[in-house]
Amino acid sequence: MATNKRKILLLPGDGIGPEVVGETKKVIDWFNKKKSMDFKIDQDLIGGASIDKHGKPITDEVFYKAQDSDAIIFGACGGPKYDNLEFSKKPERGLMKLRKELKLFANLRPAICFKELVDSSSLKPELVSGLDILIVRELTGGIYFGEPRGIKPIENGERKGINTHVYTTKEIKRIAKVAFELAAKRKNKVTSCEKSNVMEAGILWKEEVQALKDKEYKKIELNHMFADNCAMQLLRNPKQFDVILSDNLFGDILSDEAAMLTGSLGLLPSASLGEKDKNGRTRSLYEPVHGSAPDIAGKNISNPIATILSFSMALKYSLGLEKESGLLNKAVEKTLEDGLRTPDIMSKGKKKVSTSDMGDAIISNLN
Ligand code: NAD
Question: Which residue of 4, 21, 51, 234 has the fewest C-beta atoms within 10 A of its own C-beta?
């Protein structure tokens, strides 16, 4: 029977993925029940879990489900068990396939420092208190996908490894537009990062971003910064940034660095957005920034907040529910104010809780 319900696909994956997505599912159920939402939840395998059952990191059936959903909530994939698999068969290929084939070109990673957790950061409290940065990373181009690539034999029995960093005007403008539009709803400031001092693709990046700003986003303040300088500035004075725009490779590194300014990987959500399809629906995948954390998997001690906040981003960017997203963010904040902490963010005088306790407390604050 046809249904107009909005489809949310849960792909927990490996390691702590099932734990953190499990807590997020409780939150989604809460919205269905208490706010009369129409979310239809489906759940399936990806990564190592899919390899174990089907011999491949994602099946066609799961891919089609992903294609047909309004939002995908992904946990994490990978783990030591799969480390020796051939590259094309690794768990991560499932996620890469979704990113590439759903054309999820824009990765949004907020780095917000909750006032309750200022002391968890490795930087001085005055540097991070009130921090609110948004990193916009290009996700489907650049060196992670460029051709030619591979490992080839050369003379003398040696080998060479090849990856190609390549960007077109269209790809650069598409991601820069996302950064400018988001900055317009924030502090109107974009810092675009590249290495135009040593890379031609960096020169093109800088020129195209500037041209788009001059043509369509005159009110936005745009700065260009070398990516290595940005890495340093994030530690020296992170509050100078509003939106940081970057390519796939540099964005990968800068967003992990920004992540640590806030104290724990377990707190950082992300969204990956595509272009609108013909029905006006934006393809999207939401996931915590962290990986599968095999060292703590199965112990009910992982922090589910990054995944729960990823669902909050889904409410805002895919489901048109900005108010509800705010409500969920407040419930998370209140839970931290109440002093509840999973071990990764534990500090003196606070109450240590498990993954499921943290999920329950967030739901109780939603209530
Ligand atoms: P990781 O993010 O899994 O873990 C890094 C450290 O942070 C670990 O000590 C871990 O215990 C801790 N940590 C991470 N998330 C946490 C949480 N929610 N709560 C508490 N502590 C948390 O990174 P890693 O160790 O480099 O990688 C482990 C595996 O995850 C590898 O197989 C890697 O390939 C995979 N990985 C997957 C993704 C993804 O699926 N998107 C991303 C990164 C790494």
Answer: 4
Tell me the C-alpha distance between 150 and 147, whole Å: 9
Q: Give the position, in ligand 1's atom list, of the atom nearest the Cα of 13.
A: 40
Per-residue pLDDT of the chain (367 residues; tens, 9 = 90+): 445 689 999 999 999 999 999 999 999 999 999 998 999 999 999 999 999 999 999 999 999 999 999 999 999 999 999 999 988 889 999 999 999 899 999 999 999 888 888 887 888 999 999 899 999 999 999 999 899 999 999 999 999 999 999 999 999 999 999 999 999 989 999 999 999 999 999 999 999 999 999 999 999 999 999 999 999 999 999 999 999 999 999 999 998 888 888 877 899 899 999 987 777 778 999 999 899 999 999 999 999 999 999 999 999 999 989 999 999 999 999 999 999 999 999 988 999 999 999 999 999 999 9
Helix (H), strand (E) at residue 127: helix 125-128
2 and 104 housed in the same domain: yes
77 within ligand 1 shell (Cβ under 6 A): yes
Count structural domains, the chain. 2
The domain of 183 spans 153-261
Please identify, among 227, 261, 295, the residue that sits at the C-terminal boundary of a domain.
Answer: 261
- Which of 19, 292, 354 has most ligand 1 atoms within 8 Å of CB, for mutation? 292
Q: How far is the CA of 298 from the centre of ligand 1 (A)?
A: 13
What is the C-alpha to C-alpha distance for residues 257 and 232, in angstroms, rounded to an integer? 10
> What is the reported pTM?
0.90
Q: What is the Cα–Cα distance from 278 to 315, expressed in whole angstroms?
A: 21
**One domain, residues 226 and 187:** yes
Cβ 290 under 6 angstroms from ligand 1: yes
- CA atoms of 126 and 237, how far apart (whole Å): 10
